[in-house]
Structures
1.
Amino acid sequence: MKKLLAIALMASFASTAFAAAQCPAQPKDKWQKEADFKKQLQGQGYQIKKFKVSGNCYEIYGKNKDGKKVEIYFDPVSGKPVKSDIAD
């Protein structure tokens, strides 16, 4: 029984740890241009180490204006964050 509980807990943690952000599917011609969006984020104090398209989202890895490591998913049309992970 303990073994079964441990397996269930590990599976639960694994599924939450790898859950991706959900951005609504929108036509690519409505997305903000990557270069413009990066400049906008840099203007807000972000240091972008990696920028990529993840599903229907823009995703960045880098640091925020406070120097904390971040991983943030953004809606590529509105530019609003939909999911973020900020290291302490």
2.
Amino acid sequence: MTDRPDLAAMISPLSRALIDAELPVLHEHGLSMWAYSVLLALDERPLRTQAALAEAIGADKTRIIGFLDDLQRKGLIERTPDPADRRARVLSLTAEGRRVRDSAQAGIRRKEERLLARLSPEDRRGFLRALRALAALPPEEIAGA
């Protein structure tokens, strides 16, 4: 006996639909989903290594090198030698990278607003509060719960 579907059964179709809605916005900005994830992860703070970036976005560190090369070629990120460890690279956004990220994010948020407008203001606040709380949990805590 169940009073609701499993969380994954509800979230997975929603997640796929949100990604499908984001893709045209990202393509308009010349970004893939992984490239956009990199721009979001770098935000206003540089990351010290490609491995740290890969961990932050949940990617294999060998898979993101091509995305980093492309973002650097486009002038959206910089990879500079780490003064503390010359073998490592510090990754950071350029001004153009911030502009592209902000523009893409604004387009995505406009699409999200159409979806969120279907909720009452109270439900919307509660939904976003709960989603933030659950998204902040470490994966091992979710898996082990």
3.
Amino acid sequence: MAAVVLATAGTALDGCQRGLSTRAGAPVAGPSRAGCPPATLARAKAGVQQAEQVDVPWDGPTSGPRAVPGRTIVYVAQTMTNPGVVGVAKGVIEAATVIGWSVRVIDGQGTPAGIQAALAQAVNLEPSGIVIGGFDPGLTAQQVAQADTAHIPLIGWHAVAAPGPSTSPPLFSNITTSVGDVARLSADWVIAESDGRAGVVVFTDDSVPFARNKSELIKDELATCPGVRLLASENIPIPDATSRTPQAVSALLARFQGQWTHSVAINDLYFADAAPALRAAGRPGNAAPYNIGAGDGDPSAFQRIDSRQFQAATVPEPLSEQGWQIVDEFNRAFSHQPASGYVAPVHISTAANSGGATFWDPGGYRQAYRTIWGR
């Protein structure tokens, strides 16, 4: 059985950027009557339809090294208030229990100082491997260098923009779906759902390069349809989302009123915090703005979607599956074999295809990894 310890590290030094709003042109006229070029709209609708399929066979690794015994993993979390980070941590713990390793989780508390302290503590523990859980390794360059010097393999989750191995920073692998595909499909959902006529707000966290890159890609895809107008891009750091999002939503409602028809957020949690402000303004949960999360598909997002309360869709990460993949990648590193290179396909969940589930959990991966590890 895996031993699991939750630790807290760091001080309350707030180095995050504060919430900012940037507007896409002035004045903003809201949804355009122009719509989309037919080919653009058709492409968006086809992509969304494909991503909404649920009977997807396992297309990941089916071979690899047998389980290496007696290893210890430290999972350094950006913040355990981020549901995606928490979901992956649970997947790592579940997989470690199967393979026979121990796991310790250290919470960076969402601040640069806290994350640095958490990773320093992880390195000092001299574990077999360390997970960079949802933060920019550039924040912790000194600690990353110390881990590299100590020959402690690092595996990232949403740590850098691209999946797979990284030389700078030195990651054995970075686990994520393709951020380009997630951004494209979340924007395409807006294009398809609105039939090419929408006024959109994007919620992002510019303090995290992964999130900033995702939101820029979302805006680029929205711009392929002239009938979709970007009303605002709201920069709200994830640790500040609970306190700042309701205020931002109230201001957006006052500024744009009926022009605001759709939203895309880099993380579903923004809509948990937006719901009270939308409800207080008298907005029905199943009406505009129609909201889609471009990650991570936590249980509360599925609950909002299934109950049609202020969120219509999510592009969920397969969080548990990615936790299992992290353990498998470490096993490959410990066996001196290359990373698997696997990237999970992108999926869109709605009330019509969720089946009442509270997270996206594609089939096949547990048995596949058990077979690989001989467990």
